[in-house]
Write a structure and sequence with these properties.
CATH topology of the largest domain: Rossmann fold
Helix content: 25-40%
CATH superfamily of the largest domain: ANL, N-terminal domain
Shape: globular
Strand order of the largest sheet: 4-3-5-6-7-8-9-13-12-11-10
C-alpha cells in the first residue's frame, strides 16, 4: 500500500487505539478488535480467495437464518431453497430482493429466535417513509471493524484528534455524560451540521484553527460549506494539520472533492454505506473504492431485478453476513452504482465499486419518461455567476422548483436562462419555478441535497 506523505500516529493515539478502545469495545460486548485484525489480514488475500471465503460465510449465514428466523424459514420452504447447497454469491439469485416495504410489513418475523440484544434504528426517511429495523452486536462489531480498517489505510487511527461534521438525530440525541467522556478520551468532537449560518460557520473555523484535528469526518456538502466559508472570509485551513477528510452519506461530486482538498490541504477519502445496509465500501489512498467483501455481498441489478455485469450501472443490492439476528438479504439500497472488475494499485484483493452515482432520488425523469442523473440539471446552474447555493426539487414530471441563494454578481436575467436550460432537458412544456431564498434548509438528518425527485419514486 502506498502511504507516502502519511505521518505515523502519536503515542497517545497508539494507546487510545490499542488499549482504551479495545477495553471500550470489550465492555460493550463487541468483537471489533479481533475482527479488525482479521480484516487487515484478509484484505491482502487474492480476489479468488476472498470470493471463496465470502461464499463459505454466506452459506453459514443462510443456514443459520433459515433455521432461526421465521420469515426466512417460510421463504426458503416456499421456494424449495436449500441454503446448505450454496456454493457462491450467484446462488442468491434464487431469492427475491428485499424492499423497505417488506421489512416494514414483517419486521417482527425477521427477528431471529432467541436473539440477543437488538438496538432499534431507523433511516432518515427522505422518501417520506422512515424504515425501522434492528441491529445486533455482531453487526455493530463488523461495522466498527470495517470502518476502523479503512481509517487506518490513511495513516490515522482512533485517538487522533477528529472533527465530525454530522447531523443525525441519533448522535445529537445521545449527548449524555458517558458519550461526552468517551469523545474526550478518543479526541472526537461533534460539530452539528444542522445549521450552517454565517455565525456557526465562523465558530467551526475558529474551532478547527484552535484544535487542529488530524482528520475530518462528515457530509461532503457540510465540509464544502465550511471550506467555501473559510475561503470567502479569507481564513486559512490548510495549515491546521488535517491529514485526511473522510466523507460519506451523500454523493461526493468532483467539485466538492477539489474544494475540500484545496481548503484543508489534505486528501479526501470517499466512503459508502448506511445505517441500514452497513459499511459497504471505502476509498484507499490509491483511489480504489474497496468493498467490505468479507462481510457484505454486493450485487448491481437492473430495473428487472436481474444482476448486471461489471461496468453496467444499476441499483446496489446488499446481503450483510453479520445480520443473522435481523437479516438483510438482497436488500435494495435505492442507490445506483457500477462494479469494477479491475485490480487496485494498492494490491488489496478486495473487489471495488467503479462509481457511486447517487440515490434513485438523485435522478430526474423528463416529461417523456427519460431518466437522467440530476447532474444534467446541476450543470445548468453550478457555473452561473453569483449563485452561492441551490436545490432542485422535481415535484412531478410537470413541475420542478429551483431554490437559489444568490450573492454578488447575480443578475435576474439568469433566471430565464435557468428555465430554458431545464426545459431543454426535461421538456418544453415543463413548468420551472425559480425562487430566491436566503438559505437552503438541510434535511432532517442535517444533509444538504442538491437534487430531490418525487417523480421517480424509490423502490
Amino acid at each position: 500500500m502506498s502511504t507516502a506523505g502519511l505521518a505515523a500516529p502519536g503515542a497517545y493515539t497508539r494507546f487510545a487505539s490499542g488499549v482504551l478502545f479495545a477495553l471500550h469495545e470489550r465492555a460493550k460486548g463487541h468483537a471489533s478488535v479481533a475482527l479488525r485484525e482479521r480484516l487487515e489480514r484478509s484484505q491482502w488475500h487474492t480476489r479468488a480467495e476472498i470470493e471463496s471465503e465470502q461464499a463459505a460465510r454466506l452459506r453459514e449465514f443462510l443456514v443459520e437464518i433459515g433455521t432461526r428466523v421465521p420469515y426466512y424459514r417460510e421463504l426458503f420452504s416456499a421456494r424449495a431453497f436449500d441454503p446448505a447447497r450454496v456454493v457462491s454469491a450467484a446462488d442468491l439469485r434464487a431469492l427475491p430482493l428485499l424492499t423497505k416495504a417488506e421489512i416494514r410489513a414483517h419486521a417482527e418475523r425477521m427477528k431471529a429466535d432467541g436473539h440477543g440484544p437488538l438496538a432499534r434504528y431507523n433511516t432518515g426517511g427522505s422518501s417520506g417513509q422512515p424504515l425501522v429495523f434492528y441491529i445486533g452486536k455482531a453487526r455493530k462489531s463488523h461495522d466498527v471493524a470495517a470502518k476502523w480498517r479503512a481509517t487506518r489505510w490513511w495513516g490515522v487511527d482512533i485517538g487522533d484528534r477528529e472533527a465530525v461534521v454530522w447531523g443525525s438525530p441519533i448522535e445529537h440525541g445521545t449527548q449524555d455524560r458517558v458519550k461526552a467522556w468517551r469523545d474526550r478520551v478518543f479526541r472526537s468532537t461533534l460539530l452539528p451540521a444542522f445549521e450552517m449560518s454565517e455565525s456557526r460557520l465562523d465558530e467551526f473555523v475558529d474551532w478547527l484553527r484552535a484544535h487542529r484535528p488530524r482528520m475530518l469526518f462528515g457530509y461532503p456538502s457540510a465540509l464544502t460549506y465550511i471550506a467555501q466559508h473559510a475561503a470567502r472570509t479569507g481564513r486559512r485551513l490548510d495549515d491546521v494539520g488535517v491529514q485526511v477528510a473522510f466523507v460519506t452519506s451523500e454523493r461526493l461530486y468532483d467539485e466538492q472533492r477539489a474544494v475540500i482538498a484545496a481548503a484543508f490541504g489534505c486528501r479526501v477519502a470517499n466512503g459508502y454505506g448506511g445505517r441500514d445496509a452497513g459499511f459497504i465500501a471505502h476509498e484507499c489512498p490509491e483511489g480504489g473504492m474497496h468493498l467490505s467483501a468479507e462481510d457484505i455481498v454486493v450485487e448491481i441489478v437492473g430495473e428487472d431485478g436481474e444482476p448486471l455485469p461489471a461496468g453496467r450501472a444499476g441499483e446496489i443490492v446488499v446481503t450483510h453476513l453479520a445480520t443473522a439476528e435481523f437479516p438483510f438479504v438482497r436488500y435494495r439500497t435505492g442507490d445506483v452504482g457500477v462494479l469494477d472488475d479491475g485490480a487496485c494499485a494498492c494490491g488489496r484483493g478486495l473487489p471495488m465499486l467503479r462509481e457511486i452515482q447517487g440515490r434513485t432520488t438523485d435522478f430526474v425523469v423528463a416529461a417523456d419518461g427519460t431518466v437522467m442523473h440530476g447532474l444534467a440539471l446541476i450543470y445548468v446552474i453550478r457555473d452561473l455567476p453569483g449563485i452561492e447555493g441551490f436545490k432542485v426539487t422535481q415535484e412531478s414530471r410537470q413541475l420542478t422548483r429551483v431554490e437559489l441563494v444568490s450573492g454578488p454578481g447575480f443578475d435576474d436575467a439568469l433566471v430565464p436562462r435557468i428555465v430554458a436550460g431545464f426545459r431543454q432537458r426535461l421538456g418544453a412544456e415543463v413548468e420551472v419555478r425559480v425562487e430566491r431564498v436566503a438559505a437552503i434548509a438541510p434535511e432532517k438528518s442535517g444533509k444538504y441535497r442538491y437534487i430531490v425527485s418525487h417523480a421517480l419514486a424509490p423502490s
